[in-house]
Specification:
Blueprint lengths: L1 H17 L16 E4 L2 E5 L12 H14 L7 H5 L2 H14 L6 E6 L2 H13 L5 E6 L4 H9 L3 E5 L4 H10 L4 E7 L11 H10 L2 E6 L14 H5 L6 E6 L9 E6 H10 L1 H4 L6 H15 L1 H20 L6 E2 L6 E7 L1 H13 L2 E2 L1 E3 L9 E6 L6 H16 L1
Helix pairs in contact: 2-12, 4-12, 5-6, 5-10, 12-13, 13-15
This protein binds pyridoxal-5'-phosphate (PLP).
Pfam family, one: Aminotran_1_2
Family: Belongs to the class-II pyridoxal-phosphate-dependent aminotransferase family. BioF subfamily.
Catalytic activity: 6-carboxyhexanoyl-[ACP] + L-alanine + H(+) = (8S)-8-amino-7-oxononanoate + holo-[ACP] + CO2
Length: 396
């Protein structure tokens, strides 16, 4: 019996192997940064989401050590028992103040991960409510898809960036509680959702607009507040999710919204209630991370990142492959074929350049791609090296 179960798994794995869909992990021996060691070999990496180069920032590292001295290593319990620390309170207040100008009567809630924050928002706003309908953008992140499923409500998927199609769906809906949910920056494409139009629709139809700004928080907007600041939006309809393990360089995530939304999540959201609170030391380190994001250094790092994006776009001379039209740190090159994509990623790796090859099901069939991510930690020489390697590789 056991053998049969194992054989089934093994034949499925074999099938993935044959379709070039097996995923491999590589163990990194150094801090996340533009240069990382794998197997003793130094690589120039263009694959992390550490967009501002804060994951190995000495001041944040020092704050984390200080956090351990103040609060130890673990929280010991969930937030509603005894795991809610003063560091969590301070972080939530600081987050609410930081992204608050784009919300109304804002509060923020800190989560262990963005994945959990998204499950919490969608189940918390919808669960058990027979009159809820969720409208989900077709390229949304897996955590939003899973959150929508877990909410057990009626679910409609609208085509990518198709505001007119969404409007038709909202008009046709009889649900009293409507939730529109979208990535702000699409993680595999790098483009921005049409947030101003989506918000106008949500206000007209009395719907929530859940914005997952995992890739925009810290990188977009002149003060780094993210996509809402970038577009100059403010509304009590917005439920904003930002992650803290990408541009913020530490870990965890937060939801910011009108205080009644946040209180609802505290009372109802199972991914918030039934889990051990993140180590308070992380929240303490994030206080320093937010100071950097919102200060002069954050502004300089965002400007440098934008200069690198322009350098890459100006320098690439692609004929068969296609650089997607993105102005964010995510700069994907669509190759199409799975095997060719993985060969290109392997050839770069041979030369000491680490770029992620992304295949279905993470992206639609026949759109396998190199997902290049730039970071303020990169130098213009690093990007010049990447450009030269890509231009050469496409020709061979
Ligand atoms: C990374 C990501 C998440 C998940 O955040 P984690 O903190 O890594 O769990 C959610 N949404 C999007 C769009 C992401 O890119």
């Amino acid at each position: 019996m056991t053998m049969e179960l194992l054989e089934k798994l093994e034949s499925e794995l074999q099938g993935l192997q044959e379709k070039n869909l097996i995923r491999k992990r590589r163990a990194v021996e150094t801090p996340c940064g533009p240069r990382m060691k794998v197997g003793g070999r130094e690589l120039l990496a263009f694959c992390s989401n550490d967009y501002l180069g804060l994951a190995s920032h000495p001041l944040i590292a020092e704050a984390l050590r200080e956090g351990v001295d103040l609060y130890g290593t673990g929280s010991g319990a969930s937030h509603l028992i005894s795991g809610h620390s003063r560091a969590h309170v301070q972080l939530e207040e600081k987050l609410a103040e930081y992204v608050g100008p784009n919300l109304v009567e804002p509060r923020a809630l800190y989560f262990c991960t963005g994945y959990m924050a998204n499950l919490a928002v969608l189940t918390g706003l919808a669960v058990g409510d027979k009159n809820t309908e969720i409208f989900s953008e077709s390229l949304n992140h897996a955590s939003l898809i899973d959150g929508a499923r877990l909410a057990r409500t009626s679910l409609k998927v609208y085509p990518h960036a198709d505001v007119a199609a969404l409007e038709g769906m909202l008009q046709a809906s009889t649900a009293s509680n409507k939730i529109v949910v979208t990535d702000a920056v699409f993680s595999m494409d790098g483009n921005l959702a049409p947030l101003p139009q989506l918000l106008a629709l949500c206000e007209r139809h009395g719907a929530w607009l859940v914005v997952d700004d995992a890739h925009g928080f810290g990188t977009l907007g002149s003060r780094g507040r993210g996509a809402l600041e970038h577009f100059g939006l403010q509304s009590p309809h917005i439920v904003y999710v930002g992650t803290l393990g990408k541009a913020a360089g530490v870990g965890g995530a937060f939801v910011a919204a009108h205080r009644s939304v946040i209180e609802t999540l505290v009372q109802r959201a199972r991914p918030y209630i039934f889990t051990t609170a993140a180590p308070p030391a992380l929240a303490h380190a994030l206080l320093t991370s937010l100071d950097i994001l919102g200060g002069a250094e954050g502004r300089e790092r965002r400007a440098h990142l934008q200069a690198l994006v322009a350098q890459l776009q100006d320098g690439l001379r692609l004929r068969r492959w296609r650089l997607l039209p993105s102005r964010t740190a995510i700069q994907p090159i669509v190759i199409g074929d799975n095997a060719e994509t993985m060969r290109a990623a392997a050839a770069l790796y041979e030369q000491g350049i680490w770029v992620g090859g992304i295949r279905p099901p993470t992206v639609p069939a026949d759109t396998a791609r190199l997902r290049i991510t730039l970071s303020a930690g990169h130098s213009t020489r690093d990007v010049a090296q990447l450009i030269a390697a890509l231009n050469e590789l496409e020709r061979t």
